[in-house]
Amino acid sequence: MARVPDRETCLELLGRMCLIRRFEEEAGRQYQRAKAGGFLHLAIGEEATIVGTTSVMREDDYLIGTYRTHGHALARGTPADAVMAELFGKETGTSGGRGGSMHIFDAKRRFMGGYGIVGGNLPLAAGLALASQYREEDTVTVCMFGDGASNTGNFGETMNLAALWKLPVVFLVENNLYGMGTSIERHSAVTDLSHKAEGYGIEGERIDGMDVLEVRDRVSVHLEEVRSKGRPSLVEAFTYRYRGHSAADPEVYRDKAEVEEWRQKDPIENFVKVCLEDAVLGEEDIEAAKQQADKTVEAAVQFADNSPDPALESLYEELYVVSETMGWYAVDERSPEPHPGELGEEAPAAARDLAESVADRESEIEPQNRPGVRD
Q1: Beta bridge partner(s), residue 166
Q2: With contact defined as beta carbons under 8 Å apart, do 82 and 93 qualify?
Q3: Does position 75 have pLDDT exceeding 50, yes or no?
């Protein structure tokens, strides 16, 4: 275990982990009450990986996650009120109640969101890092994703591009041993994920994701190396989730004994033990941190409950925008004069004439003689 930091830092680390744990527990309860809708993915057990990583990031660094990201937002400083309100689908939520659990977003704190598509955040992270490079900033993007995402095509493509362009990004795999309900031995030929990007020239390191101090120590090294050398790196945080893949997961794929074994490695309780042994914190500090987390989450639930629902007439706002100043959303190339696909009624005359002539010819052909038609 890395050296125990000063009292102020320990209080901050403990407070953040307690807040995330308490928030996730309450989110699960509110989901059962049908207050939180959609899907719900809890990160109970993964607090050390989240807090250890974010605690050594700069405020101007970028963070991007997947769909298990309530804790990431909280660790970056997003108010618990706004996160809970987003789960409740309320107007005061981080995405105006339109994103829900899987799409928490806080641009102000450079938390660039959670994404429901496995591996979908990887190329976006490369884009954020490219922007930093293009603007000649020394900011780093941290991309956190699960072990299952390391098997997607996006993973290889992004690693190759990031290495080729020497992008300032730290790819952090939250390896919780299961891709949904499939154990890592059954879904990945390489189970030490820290080696998975070596073929693209990206060095990796496996760390104990249940130890907030080790995560903090090693991720800080990777951040500074990426910042100074301008090249990507990969960190595999070996962690565990105590709840199922989602709130609807029956968890028939793992033994209760396995879960209990990992509970003995609880990131919060083990950090508390170290702080007490080193006399950096006292029992009263531990109790105060837990009570503060309780109060914050209780207030967040009340805030979300009392917040207004989005107006019904706003249902279709910001879903699809067509204007003269924006680019094309689709391209219709069925004529010598391509035109925006979303503006079919404004297609050039040549496109309309061509479509009509094809329709006329089709009507002259006997049905049995049309291509693809058989007796």
Answers
A1: none
A2: yes
A3: yes
Q: CATH number of the domain at 7-314, please?
A: 3.40.50.970
* Cα–Cα distance for residue pair 336/352, rounded to 1 Å: 11
- Quickly tell me which residue has 């496995």 as its tokens: 118
Q: Which two tokens stand for residue 214?
A: 């080790």
Q: What pLDDT digit, counting tens, does each position of 314-373 carry?
A: 876 776 555 565 565 566 555 566 666 555 556 666 666 666 665 565 555 555 554 444
- Check if the beta carbon of residue 97 is closer than 8 Å to that of residue 91: yes
**Residue pair 20/43 in contact by the 8 Å Cβ criterion:** yes
Residue 54 structure tokens? 């974010």
How deeply is 37 buried, as exposed, middle or buried, from its count of CB atoms within 10 A (0-12, 13-18, 19+)? middle
β partners of residue 206? 236
Burial class (CB in 10 A: 0-12, 13-18, 19+), 48: buried
- Whole-angstrom distance between the N-terminal and C-terminal Cα of the chain? 75
Half-sphere exposure of 265 (CA within 13 A, CB side): 19
197/187 Cα distance (integer angstroms)? 17
* pLDDT value at residue 374: 45
Q: What is the DSSP string of 105-134?
A: -BGGGTB----SSTTTHHHHHHHHHHHHHH
pLDDT at 89 exceeding the cut of 70: yes
User: Which among 125, 168, 121 is positioned nearest to 148, based on CA atoms?
Assistant: 121
The H or E element spanning position 358 is helix 349-364
Compute φ and ψ for 254, nearest 5 degrees.
-140, 150
How many whole angstroms separate alpha carbon 153 and alpha carbon 174? 18
What does the domain layout of the chain look like in residue ranges? Answer: 7-314, 320-375
Q: How far apart are CA 38 and CA 27, in angstroms?
A: 12
DSSP E strands in the chain: the ranges are 62-64, 141-146, 169-175, 178-179, 182-183, 204-208, 233-238, 331-332, 339-340
